[in-house]
Amino acid sequence: EDFINHRLEQYQRHIISVAEFYKNIVRQVEASGDESAFELVMDVIRSSLHVRLHSNAPFRSHRICVLGAPGSGKTTQSRAISRNYGLVHVDVAVLVRKFQAEKGVLVEGGTPPEWMSDEELCEIVGKRLNNVDCLRKGWVLDGFPKTAAQAEFLRLNHHWPSRVASLAVSEETVLARTADRKIDPVTGAPYYRPPQNPVVAGRLMTADFDEPAKIKERYALHDENVRGVLQAFPTVRFGIEADGAISELTSAIYEKINEALPSELAQDAATAES
Fold first, then answer.
1. Is residue 54 within 8 Å of residue 269, measured between CB atoms?
2. What SS3 state is found at 60?
3. I want to staple 27 with a disulfide (CB 3.0 to 4.6 A). Which of 10, 49, 86, 165 is the partner?
4. pLDDT digits (tens, 9 = 90+) for 154-175
């Protein structure tokens, strides 16, 4: 027992500095002593190592774009994808708020990314994707590209996505989901139910861009532009119905991401033959 405790002490003493050294590629996995959790832990490790289900061939970290109208659930799904595959969650709305703050532009509730110019949004996103963590871990782009011009920007700057998920949701569902949505004017975070923190709850507001008329405009704008975006990535795109339960949507997205593309299968075959 003393020997085990000594080894545990050594581990705890060194693990923080080791993790810091590999901070751009490290991922923490919760592993309980329950044997029933073994397969769950292994699934997380496999997704982090990015080993194909059809072979032992590794491939580059995923680069995933999640598209959808406001209220489609793209941020919720982007966070889930980020956790499951160990990717960097690039929230475009957060990048826009940071960009405006640096420019001294104060917009109560923030500005929807689709209201930004292509040039500004491409500059903001491109800079983030070139950071070391995105280059090493891979990324999930939450709500980008929004136009064909932005999709072309990704192509020309070698930020080719490995998957493009398009969340299809009805206008009625979007209006229902955003009807009670409130925005924290300090952080820009959306809330669909009252937060437990009374200070935060007291300052929540309904953003102008979440008014029903504006939601309809934003929905129509997404519907007008998304086809051009998907046409730019014909081999890696897939559509998902997003009107249903969140857990079912997440499972469907994981299944699509894990499904090998013809190009990936061809690469596997070439590797096996060499």
1. no
2. coil
3. 86
4. 999 999 999 999 999 999 999 9
